[in-house]
């Protein structure tokens, strides 16, 4: 095994901290279907707007994504989510959620019109009442899928916020392309840019803010206790619909005062979501300092490592150092597995289901930590030091976890 580590590195670990496994077939199939839905929607835009309008609309729809995704993912940087799961969430929002929403909103507007409302009134009712209910349900369905098939990846409210926001950003990107192309068809580039300023610059977080309410409910269903923990899912959905409807209503009124109120509410919600994420991160850092010292006798953790794991800045320094040695993945695996071990202790204290499989999950994480450390030792004879914190394990280490 030593030769294998020297050439290929340690066993890969998922971002959640467990050893890598074959992706779920259902997730891969759903990801493919969602991707086809997104492509079909974009093909529809291309057919309706032509090459110039399509190119401009897609460019403006994608432009804010790097900044917005980075802002969301930084909330969970100590224990990042698996990339496949994040991709699944984004593509679901961009594909299935968009197609389902278009179909149901079209049917909803037709139903409202059939009740005797004029075209303008029917559009307003659809915008304010039907669209928020349909779109939040379509986006929230991705979170229910994760709850059903990947509940082990939902460790707390931050995970719920992250997954919900990624779904919502995928949805918003494609929805914005539809709006931009429609504006281009009516009044050309100037109208498209004006629509971009309104949707892509002034209100880029509308969808993530609203859908995060569902994410909090789904996360509580995983981490809470008692049968009542599932009650927060419909409550979160109701909150998402209300927030979404408030914005659409203010836009329909075209009232600066109404828009100001909605912006204020949005700012308060964002502050609350960030507070939740920061509080959970502090709990995780506390768990690292509290629970990992018990593993010092195994040789898999040193006091200096605990300091490194508790600081995002020093973690980055450690990864950069390891990357120069060709062992960047090993350092990332070590950090993620050690962080997941601390999170496992926290979850085991509040969830009997986690407690029952605690030993198996703990041993799997320790095995990843041991393999990663062994690979780092092979790559370097002398561990670097950064302000008193070692960025790599000590040298005299076992090559496997305790008891193996």
UniProtKB/TrEMBL annotation:
The chain crosses the membrane at residues 28-48, 54-74, 86-104, 124-148, 160-181, 201-223, 230-251, 257-278. It comes from the Bacteria. Pfam families: PrsW-protease (PF13367). GO terms for molecular function: peptidase activity. The keyword Hydrolase does not apply. Keywords: Membrane, Transmembrane, Transmembrane helix. PANTHER family: PROTEASE PRSW. This is RsiW-degrading membrane proteinase PrsW (M82 family).
């Amino acid at each position: 095994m030593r030769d294998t580590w020297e050439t290929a590195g340690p066993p890969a670990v998922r971002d959640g901290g467990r050893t890598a496994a074959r992706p779920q077939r259902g997730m891969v199939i759903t990801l493919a279907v969602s991707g086809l839905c997104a492509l079909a929607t974009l093909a529809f835009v291309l057919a309706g707007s032509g090459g110039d309008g399509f190119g401009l609309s897609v460019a403006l729809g994608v432009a804010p994504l790097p900044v917005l995704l980075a802002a969301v993912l930084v909330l969970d940087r100590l224990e990042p989510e698996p990339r496949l799961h994040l991709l699944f969430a984004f593509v679901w929002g961009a594909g299935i959620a968009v197609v389902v929403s278009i179909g149901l909103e079209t049917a909803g507007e037709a139903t409202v019109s059939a009740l005797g409302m004029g075209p303008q009134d029917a559009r307003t009712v659809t915008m304010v009442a039907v669209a928020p209910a349909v779109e939040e349900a379509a986006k929230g369905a991705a979170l229910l899928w994760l709850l059903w098939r990947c509940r082990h990846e939902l460790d707390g409210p931050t995970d719920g916020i992250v997954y919900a926001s990624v779904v919502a950003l995928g949805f918003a990107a494609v929805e914005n392309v539809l709006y931009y192309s429609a504006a281009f068809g009516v009044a050309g580039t100037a109208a498209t840019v004006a629509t971009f300023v309104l949707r892509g610059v002034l209100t880029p977080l509308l969808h993530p803010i609203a859908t995060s309410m569902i994410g909090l409910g789904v996360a509580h269903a995983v981490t809470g206790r008692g049968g009542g923990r599932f009650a927060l899912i419909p409550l979160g959905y109701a909150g998402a619909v209300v927030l979404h409807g408030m914005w659409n209503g203010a836009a329909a009124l075209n009232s600066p005062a109404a828009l100001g109120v909605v912006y204020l509410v949005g700012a308060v919600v964002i502050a609350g979501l960030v507070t939740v994420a920061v509080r959970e991160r502090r709990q995780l850092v506390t768990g690292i300092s509290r629970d990992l010292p018990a593993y010092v006798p195994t040789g898999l953790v040193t006091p200096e490592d605990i300091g490194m794991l508790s600081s995002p800045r020093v973690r980055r320094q450690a990864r950069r150092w390891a990357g120069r040695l060709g062992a960047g993945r090993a350092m990332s695996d070590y950090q993620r597995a050690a962080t997941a071990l601390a999170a496992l202790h926290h979850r085991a204290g509040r969830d009997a289901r986690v407690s029952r499989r605690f030993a198996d999950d703990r041993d799997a994480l320790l095995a990843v930590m041991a393999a990663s450390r062994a690979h780092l030792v092979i790559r370097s004879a002398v561990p670097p030091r950064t302000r008193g914190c070692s960025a790599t394990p000590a040298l005299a280490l076992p090559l496997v976890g305790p008891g193996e």
